[in-house]
């Protein structure tokens, strides 16, 4: 299949890890630990640029905790991404794309980053973040802003 026919006009230009903190008391994890994941995102910029497109910058912050007895693993991770769309896309439509598609793209990177890093700092096991319904996440985020 020629993917040019289904390529979105909304594209990620790039991403970077802005902040990463890890506290780990575990030697290994077995999947029976209690887990908590908090996720927030912020859109820091939306505007036109000289290349006839709209640019948006957003950050996704994850706070991950695992614990079992006195052992704890805590990760704070912030990833920033830059996204673009054609300049004729309305700002509100672009913001919706950032909220859903931007969050999905950055969360995918975060999942891979956390899995890779925790597999290197633990003798056994790794942290696999759950799949998240970003449409539902965006809806619940909109409700909290009202």
General description of the model:
- It is built from two helices and four strands, in the order ββββαα.
- The protein has 146 residues and is of the alpha+beta class.
- It has a four-stranded antiparallel sheet, with helices on one face.
- The longest helix has 31 residues.
- The model has no long low-confidence stretch (mean pLDDT 93).
Brief summary:
This protein is an alpha+beta fold.
Summary keywords:
146 residues; 29% helix; four-stranded antiparallel β-sheet; elongated; alpha+beta; 4 strands; single chain
Instruction: For the record, give the distance between the C-alpha atoms at the N and C termini, rounded to a whole number.
Output: 42 Å
Strand percentage = 35-45%
Helix content: 25-40%
Global shape: elongated
Number of DSSP helical runs: 2
Oligomer: single chain
List the helices and strands and how they pair.
Layout: E1 11-24, E2 34-48, E3 53-68, E4 71-86, H1 91-121, H2 134-145
Antiparallel strand pairs: 1-4, 2-3, 3-4
Helix pairs in contact: 1-2
């Amino acid at each position: 299949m020629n993917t040019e026919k289904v390529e979105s006009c909304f594209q990620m230009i790039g991403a970077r890890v802005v902040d990463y903190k890890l506290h780990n008391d575990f030697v290994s994890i077995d999947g029976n630990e209690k887990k908590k994941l908090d996720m927030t995102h912020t859109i820091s910029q939306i505007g036109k640029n000289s290349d006839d497109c709209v640019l948006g910058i957003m950050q996704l912050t994850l706070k991950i905790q695992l614990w079992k007895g006195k052992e704890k693993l805590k990760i704070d991770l912030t990833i920033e991404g830059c996204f673009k769309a054609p300049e004729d896309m309305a700002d509100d439509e672009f913001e919706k794309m950032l909220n859903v598609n931007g969050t999905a793209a950055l969360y995918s990177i975060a999942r891979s980053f956390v899995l890779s890093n925790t597999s290197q700092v633990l003798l056994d096991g790794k942290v696999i973040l759950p799949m998240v319904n970003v449409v539902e996440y965006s809806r619940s985020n909109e409700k909290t802003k009202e």
